[in-house]
UniProtKB/TrEMBL annotation:
One of its GO terms (molecular function) is protein phosphatase regulator activity. One of its GO terms (cellular component) is protein phosphatase type 2A complex. GO terms for biological process: microtubule cytoskeleton organization. It comes from Nezara viridula (Southern green stink bug). PANTHER family: PROTEIN PHOSPHATASE 2 (FORMERLY 2A), REGULATORY SUBUNIT A, BETA ISOFORM-RELATED (PTHR10648:SF4), SERINE/THREONINE-PROTEIN PHOSPHATASE PP2A 65 KDA REGULATORY SUBUNIT (PTHR10648). Belongs to the phosphatase 2A regulatory subunit A family. InterPro entries: 2AA_helical, ARM-like, ARM-type_fold, HEAT, HEAT_type_2, PP2A/SF3B1-like_HEAT, PP2A_Regulatory_Subunit_A, TOG. HEAT repeats lie at residues 14-52, 91-129, 168-206, 207-245, 246-284, 285-318, 328-366, 367-405, 406-444, 523-561, 562-592. Pfam families: HEAT (PF02985), HEAT_2 (PF13646), PPP2R1A-like_HEAT (PF22646), VPS15-like_hel (PF22956). Keywords: Repeat. Residues 235-466 form the TOG domain. This is Protein phosphatase PP2A regulatory subunit A.
Amino acid sequence: MAASDSSSDDSLYPIAVLIDELKNEDVQLRLNSIKKLSTISLALGVDRTRSELIPFLTDTIYDEDEVLLALAEQLGQFTPLVGGPEYVYCLLPPLESLATVEETVVRDKAVESLRHISSQHSPQDLENRFVPLVTRLSSGDWFTSRTSACGLFSVCYGRVNSSVKADLRTHFRNLCQDDTPMVRRAAASKLGEFAKVVELEYLKTDLIPMFVSLAQDEQDSVRLLAVEACVSIASLLQQEDVEQLVMPTLRQCTSDNSWRVRYMVADKFTELQKAVGPEITKAELVGALQSLLKDSEAEVRAAAANKIRDFCQALDPTCREPIIMVNILPYVKELVADPNQHVKAALASVIMGLSPILGKNITIEHLLPLFLSQLKDECPEVRLNIISNLDCVNEVIGIQQLSQSLLPAIVELAEDAKWRVRLAIIEYMPLLAGQLGVQFFDEKLNALCMAWLVDHVYAIREAATLNLKKLVEKFGPEWAQNTVIPKVLAMSNDQNYLHRMTCLFSINVLAQVCGSEVTAQLMLPTVITMASDSVPNVRFNVAKTLQKIGPVLDPGCIQSQVKPVLEKLNADEDVDVKYFASEAMSVISASA
């Protein structure tokens, strides 16, 4: 008897521990116990999980949001633990409760789990158990349950009989007309996915009226979500039905009083273009794009500008060029001088993509002047976006034409009187080098990069040394040996001590990318020679350089060449030189 009592106690132990932990005051402990639910369930077995654990969880749903979130997530993976698909309906009560809580992330996770387990229900269980849950949620007293219901229609609709389908459509229509804006918003966001599973005849008779109603809602937050549904609905209909049933509403959204609705149209523009097809695009969407590109709100203009390249690319090839030249390019020209920098930056990120579409002659005649204008724009993001995309123009018009047109503008900026403009161009130089290739770079831009090393502004000289490092990373140490290092080392004999110091700063960064051999053979001898410089600032920078390049050099080289120089500098009459020399010696000794 005692033995059977003890085995009964053992079998109750996991659920007793869970109950204790779930009632603990420490949130972290409760959270950990929820995350261990699958282990507890395995210990209990499928029968007791169904008869004890699930009811217990259903009854105790009043906790911190993070605990409920973890529970909602766990339950979505619980099907094998309750005995497989045959018993998956056991998970519906706790998930139904979680789908009604106030915190949005918990409700969303509960809906996600319900959507996941819906496919595991048999058709009979779906009709007898899952659909009644959807019905209860969609007619609940609190808006929280009704918003959750919206996400469940599409996953069960396709597997139920026609009378249940009719009920589901009625419930969804009621949610689209709900008094609470949050519910209508949820219905609008799920209308597109529901449309994909509804039969075509009911799509036209039932769902399109819902779509039209939501697109005319008094709340702009509902209307903008109807735009997203528009994409799904239009892609499901024949062209004449799109023209008749969808386009009037889309036209209305394009000129909506709320900029957020117009923004959503602009943001979804290429998806809409794909959904409505080439004929309606030509007849309707070209005009709509013009309207959005001239919108009074900068956010709308920027979103529309972002879509220009993809929109033009997807136009019917037989009439693409005339449409772009007559209907789109004039608006693009206006946007280049837009007062808002975000609009100009959005345009600059896509405008170069028009080159491959329009070809060499039109690019040279019409687009190059726009690129030049944007390359000189005061906004750095605009300039960066143009420089970042030079390669696609290069492919169309060739390096020769590019160097004649855009390069003078880049050189002009590189020599600008304002040092901040020069600094911006230095930052783009590695990118430009990658776009144009080593040969072109050496011919046209290398001299500029070397000139920056002797600029009268320290920030430019510093940026120029970092620029050298990035260029060597792109073009390799061999290029550095032939092109950069000789010019850098020549600066060690410059009359101006600041330029001699820049030589050392350049060696600091070049050593990192050129490796041990090049550093020891080409650069170290110059550093050692500069240890005898007449200016203390140069001498103590020699000590700092030796410390920096020490990790690159092999131990024999450090012992025979570096340490004697540092010992000499350590006996220097200048206190700063002595200080940096001793610091370098201690760092090098420690790492040896």
